[in-house]
Amino acid sequence: MGINKDWFVEKINYFLKNDESNKMKMVDNSFIFDPDVIVGFVSGDDPIFSEYKKIIGEFYLTPIEAYSWYCERKGIPISTENLSVVTYILPINKKTKEENFEYSKVNPSERWANTRLFGEQANVKTQTHLIDELKKLGINAMAPTQEKCLFKINPKIWASNWSHRHCCFASGLGSFGLSDGFINSRGKAMRCGSIIVDYTLPSDAAKRPSDPYEYCINCGDCIDRCPVNAITSKKRHDKIICSNHVMGTIPYIKKNYGINIYGCGLCQVGVSCENEIPKKPS
Ligand code: SF4
Ligand code: SF4
After folding, report:
1. What residue ranges line ligand 1, CB within 6 angstroms?
2. What percentage of the chain reaches a pLDDT higher than 70?
3. What are phi and psi of 202, to 5 degrees?
4. How far, in Å, CA of 275 to CA of 282, rounded?
5. DSSP codes of every residue in 259-274
6. DSSP 3-state of 47
7. 245 lines ligand 2 (CB under 6 A)
């Protein structure tokens, strides 16, 4: 079997079903992410990556830059003509979304906090798993966010030099919403990932909407859900207000759930885009 969309979907779903990292081990051992992922592809030389440099900042990495860095680091010949970016959406377990909606008006629920901490570890392991499986087929791949010397966050503007969500947009999986969350067919309550693969895969760029906010219906649900008014219809999402609140949840989470992490996600549940791309009002 060659590698194609089905190959990636099967590999990720199988991993999520069977790997211990995807279990809510400090709660009830249920899945952190439902094994029902969607996958997108975009060419490594797609012009949108140069656009991101203009929109986000010069520091933002294109797949060609990130992969060239990787080749140099690993001492392998630099080859960038066949690069593809593979992206995926990991849907958050239904029970976790319900709990975060019912439980909390300020702090996140226990399952949500566990998803933030252990779910991200499962997400990183998913990327490593894909890279290992590709290597078995003789295909090189890398995950920019896992390369500590490459991946950087610009604290002045709260933006990193590689963004899974922007890769998901580039590969046609969905669009951004008012709250900066990524709206897609599995819903905004998710985590996502991306890797660079040295293999030509059919790009999904044609599915990419021209409007980066195409699937947001401006219902305002997320505005009402935010406990600190970080979302407004005029200024959209204020990252500073949001991050101040999110970081302030650490003591509560430590005291009540026994884990060292921050979280919120109240704008991702109980909203029209929580589980799907919402229908536009007629
Ligand atoms: S809740 Fe409504 S306004 Fe907020 S991101 Fe979703 S669709 Fe957009
Ligand atoms: S994550 Fe929390 S603080 Fe940030 S915008 Fe969403 S609801 Fe508001």
Report:
1. 177-179, 181, 216-222, 271-273, 278
2. 100
3. -65, 120
4. 20
5. -------GGGSSSTTS
6. coil
7. yes
Q: What is the position in ligand 1's atom list of the atom closest to the CA of 273? A: 6
Mean per-residue pLDDT for 24-41?
97
- Check: CB of residue 47 under 8 Å from CB of residue 62: no
Q: How many whole angstroms from 199 Cα to the centroid of ligand 2?
A: 38
Q: What is the pLDDT of residue 1?
A: 59
Identify whether the C-beta of residue 61 lies closer than 8 Å to the C-beta of residue 158: no
* Helix spans in the chain (H): 5-18, 48-55, 63-74, 94-103, 110-114, 120-136, 164-170, 221-225, 239-247, 250-257
Ligand at minimal distance from the CA of 275 is 1
For residue range 153-187, what is the model confidence (pLDDT) as tens digits?
Answer: 877 777 899 999 999 999 999 999 999 999 999 99
Each residue's pLDDT tens digit, 199-243 = 999 999 999 999 999 999 999 999 999 999 999 999 999 999 999
The model's pLDDT over 62-77, given as tens digits with 9 standing for 90+, comes to 999 999 999 999 999 9
Angle at 139 between CA 137 and CA 141, to 5 degrees: 130
Tell whether ligand 2 has an atom less than 6 A from the beta carbon of residue 230: yes
DSSP 189: S
Of the candidates 126, 118, 171, 170, the one whose C-alpha atom is nearest the C-alpha of residue 145 is 126
- What is the pLDDT of the chain when averaged over all its residues? 95
Question: Which of 194, 208, 177 is CA-nearest to residue 274?
Answer: 177
Contact 208, 169 (CB under 8 A): yes
CA dihedral 52, 54, 58, 62 (to 10 degrees): 30
Nearest CA to ligand 1 atom 3: 218
